């Protein structure tokens, strides 16, 4: 299992698919499936039986996972999509950085 370039809380840009060109915040990363759920993107309609939370039942709109190869983290400096690198900072801690600007990417 390898580390992923995307983490929960990152702001990402969608490279491909129906939501191409849109941005959103990562709500959840499904590491085993190499997918991420992005807030407000890749919405699907799901039929729901009546339950305590939704007594009427019916159709609910919710986010579906997007493969991480179709996502790029946004550069904190320029706000444009960038690739991610890893390096050790002055404290010797491994951090992610933007390949475009060299800026360190904060978690979340």
Structure summarized in a few sentences:
Helix content is 0%, strand content 44%. The protein has 108 residues and is mainly β.
Tell me what you see in this structure:
- The protein is an all-beta fold and 108 residues long.
- The chain has a single domain, classed as SH3 type barrels.
- Helices cover 0% and strands 44% of the residues.
- It is built from no helices and 11 strands.
- It has strands spanning 11-14, 23-30, 35-38, 43-48, 58-63, 66-67, 71-74, 81-82, 84-88, 94-98, 104-105.
- A 6-stranded antiparallel beta sheet has the order 6-3-2-1-7-8, with no helix packed on it. A 3-stranded antiparallel beta sheet has the order 9-10-11, with no helix packed on it.
- A hairpin with an 8-residue loop joins strand 1 (11-14) and strand 2 (23-30).
- The protein is elongated and about 55 Å long.
- 18% of the residues are buried.
* Terminal Cα span: 22 Å
| Top-tier CATH class | Mainly Beta
What value does the Rg take, in angstroms?
17 Å
Order of helices and strands: EEEEEEEEEEE
- Major sheet strand order: 6-3-2-1-7-8
CATH topology: SH3 type barrels
The major sheet is characterized as:
6 strands, antiparallel
**What would CATH call the architecture?**
Roll
């Amino acid at each position: 299992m390898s580390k992923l370039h995307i983490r929960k809380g990152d702001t990402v840009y969608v490279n491909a698919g129906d939501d191409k060109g849109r941005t959103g915040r990562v709500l959840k990363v499904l590491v085993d499936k190499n997918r991420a759920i992005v807030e407000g993107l890749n919405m699907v309609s799901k039929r729901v039986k009546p339950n305590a939370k939704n007594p009427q039942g019916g159709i609910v709109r919710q986010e579906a996972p997007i493969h991480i190869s179709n996502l790029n983290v946004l550069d904190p400096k320029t706000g444009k999509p960038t690739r991610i690198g890893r390096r050790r900072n002055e404290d010797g801690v491994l951090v992610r950085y933007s390949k475009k600007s060299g800026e360190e990417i904060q978690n979340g």
